[in-house]
Amino acid sequence: MSIQTIADRVLGEIQQRGTYRRMRRFDGTQGPRMRVDGREVLAFAGSNYLDLAAHPTVIQAAQEAAESHGCAAAGSRLINGNMDIHEALEEDIAKFFGLDSALVFATGYMANVGVIPAIVGSGDLLVSDALNHASIVDGARLAKADVAIFPHGDVDELERILKRESSRRREILVAVDGIYSMDGDVAPLSEILPLCRRYGAISLVDDAHGTGTLGPRGRGSAEQQNALEHVDILMGTLGKSVGSFGAFVAGGLTLRDLLINTARSFIFSCALAPPAVAAAQAAFRVMDKESERREALQANALRLREGLARHGISTDPSSTHIVPVIVGENAATMAVCETLLHEGFHAQGIRHPSVPEGTARLRLTPMATHRAAEVDALVEAVATALSTPERAAAV
Fold first, then answer.
1. Are 103 and 259 in contact (CB under 8 A)?
2. Fold category of 56-289 in CATH
3. What is the bridge-based pairing of β-strands 233-237 and 202-206?
4. Residue 291 vs residues 218, 298, 301, 378: alpha-carbon distances, Å
5. Is 313 in contact with 383 (CB distance < 8 Å)?
6. Does domain 22-49+291-394 have CATH number 3.90.1150.10?
7. How many Å apart are CA 273 and CA 29, to the nearest integer?
């Protein structure tokens, strides 16, 4: 059987289901206004939440690192790629979060599929929220641990599982997202983390979307709930609010040593490029100094949610800068998405199977640097598009 035969069969099935994907082309730097597929639009679909990817300080740091350290580490950290700049970033991250250590990975996905098998294995138990990110799901598969899934945010069911399993298992790992990437709600960490301590479970918080955006100092969803000191393993990304590339796992000193020796996605991967490392270092300094960016981001998110609510459009259960608008079916959602693009707004449609069937949605993500008038314009455009989704057929 040829590649062509396989591709024709699989892609044909995908197209028949209405879930065929293609990549849009974005010109220029990631920001509130971009050129998408040749059209000038207001961008409300990215994760550069604080607009640091093009911050002058961040760019300058990347340029200087390229000159002093080159454009590649050219190897894994355990062979030749462990540069002084990597260790300096890890020290900065640990200090930023008030934790003992940090280790950087190439991506958030690679961090989770590395850390989970390092903590649990065959016969152990991973307890996972039903809406956890795919990287946690895949990390559990690689670990070959048993898995118990509790309904989204259901702390009572989590406790029932922990109470039943705590005496039976060598290790239990409880994994949750900090902010859920498709719904925009925050995990009840102030309840979940004490339960982990009570029943001897290890906690993993994937705070990819909370890092830099929540908490008095931008230390994320756990800081927002005064629970950061109770997190055993904190994962965050460098490619969203931080405006660079990569990810990190932070916690105790022994955690770092364990991951260096056992996390396959760290051991067998090339180290982060020096310009990305320096950009992340600079971005953490900017986040620390410019708290007004977090405030502006959340103010824009609140303005967006309240504006949509005035039109009778629900964004539940969001309380953050990820603002979902449920449309329902895949085709109708993508029709609204295309209508908005034609009207000058990039607001990405998210379809089943990325979200449960019948809950396809617009996933709106404002940035700190969007102006109030731009947020208001998006509200009006979404309200109009939802009332006449058939207009997309004419685009």
1. yes
2. Aspartate Aminotransferase; domain 2 (3.40.640)
3. parallel
4. 8, 11, 16, 25
5. yes
6. yes
7. 19
Is 240 among the residues known to form the active site?
A: yes
Confidence check: pLDDT of 4 > 90: yes
Point out the catalytic residue in the list 101, 128, 181, 241: 181
Domains 22-49+291-394 and 56-289 fall in the same CATH topology = no
Catalytic-residue membership of 181: yes
Single out the residue of 363, 383, 367 nearest to residue 307, CA to CA. Answer: 383
Structure tokens given for 335: 């029709």
Q: For the chain, which residues make up each domain, given as ranges? A: 22-49+291-394, 56-289
Instruction: Tell me the residue type at 178.
Output: G
Report yes or no: 294 and 50 within 8 Å, Cβ to Cβ. Answer: yes
Using an 8 Å Cβ cutoff, are 127 and 175 in contact? yes
Q: Which of 55, 86, 133, 209 is catalytic?
A: 209
Q: Which residue has the tokens 């989590």?
A: 158
Average of pLDDT values for 356-360?
93
Is 323 a residue whose pLDDT tops 50? yes
Q: Which of 285, 240, 267 is nearest to 105 (CA)?
A: 267
Please confirm, yes or no, whether 314 is among the known catalytic residues.
Answer: no
Catalytic hit among 69, 240, 321, 346: 240
- Please give the pLDDT value at position 1: 81
Query: pLDDT digits over 204-262, tens only?
Result: 999 999 999 999 999 999 999 999 999 999 999 999 999 999 999 999 999 999 999 99
- Residue 27, φ and ψ in degrees, nearest 5: -105, 140
Question: pTM here?
Answer: 0.94
